[in-house]
Amino acid sequence: MGELxxxxxxxxxxxxxxxxxxxxxxxxxxxxMVSFLLQTPVCYSTDRLNYEVSGHIKSRLSGQAFPRxxxxxxLSSANAWDFNNDLRxxxxxxxTGWKLETDAQLIALHGDAVEYTRExxxxxxxxxxxxxxxPNDDRRWWDLTRIYEDEDKTxxxxxxxxxxxxxxxxxxxxxxGRQALSWGNGxxxxxxxxxxxxxxxxxxxxxxAGDDMLYGQYLQDNGNDLExxxxxxxxxxxxxxxxxQSTYAVKYHGFRGLAEYDLMFAQHYDEWMTGLGLSFDxxxxxxxxxxxxxxxxxxxxxxQLVVNSSYSWIWAGRNVTGSAxxxxxxxxxxxxxxxxxxxxxxxxxxxxxxxxxxYNLGRHYLGASITLEVTPLFTVTxxxxxxxxxxxxxxxxxxxxxxxxDLVLLGALAIPVGPDGTEYGGLESPxxxxxxxxxxQVFAQLAWYF
Length: 450
Fold this sequence. Notes:
Porin, two-stranded antiparallel sheet, 21 strands, alpha+beta, 18-stranded antiparallel β-barrel, disordered N terminus
């Protein structure tokens, strides 16, 4: 408890020292300028202009244990603890048809992971694509992230996660700027969600990372719709905007009887992709599937496939929802070999992991979960992520408790299972006898919304 109080005080001191200045000078400058520009219309006619300010403060404590053979243990200790604070301020202003959205973040981190991931990046750079550090905009069109401190166990950064202007008409809508886009029918694994998909094991999925794009949607009278997006990116090696780093995609969503379908065509990082999605109800359950074909330079056409089902029922007077999903990753290692030599022979896989398009190294996966509504305000969800190619797995228990209208407590416990050399058991490192293995992990987050 004393260590936790010390970490909290140190984070609070740094926020007090840097936070207001940074928000006013770097992040908040956008909000301040927008507020200034809107003063005249606000004073002139509040009936024509609406604006809203909201946000949250999330305080997160996470810890994990490292086995004796883990290289993380050498860089840190037997146990690692981290305390993170995330302040997010959301500003929206609009009039008939038009809306401006600006979401600013101030993130303070203090703990062992800040330090040992930095050391790992310097010590074994060939594996840096597997272990991310601080958020950055190296690939994005606009550089809206600033790291103000990254030293020892402390990091402090500010960023704009949303900055978009949109117009919505009767049948069409357009958005330009930093925004989030989600496509596909995946529950855990999402082949058709090609722009910043979530890590399947991520606990807090409230906000998806934004990208800089032009997005449009056309809604037909029959309910079908056509979506299109153009995501502009830079080559992280040169810092220049390149067409082979960008994404051009269109998706048509339609209805056929009681079923829904999606057709997607995209050029993603200079690679042509075709996707087909389907969802329908049968036997009281919801069934979904996504199939994606990718035309690559080295392997021709490689597919990714996800098939899932969800079923809800009442047990002992409580609502229960169960889900199961199979995922086929055509870019993954089929033999369960994840050594440096084996991974070097799979450049297509490493490229997707590096840019956050894939989070798994194997080929066949099974995901399953059951959500039990203990009370209307408290849910318990055990999750299972099973790599069928090497037999390793990750068991995760997630709880969510609404403590009030504006206070939510999120908790999780994760236990990896598998022998050394497997994905969840711990990949082999270049150092003899050492692995990238972790033990049990705990997570607790208190979120206050305003």
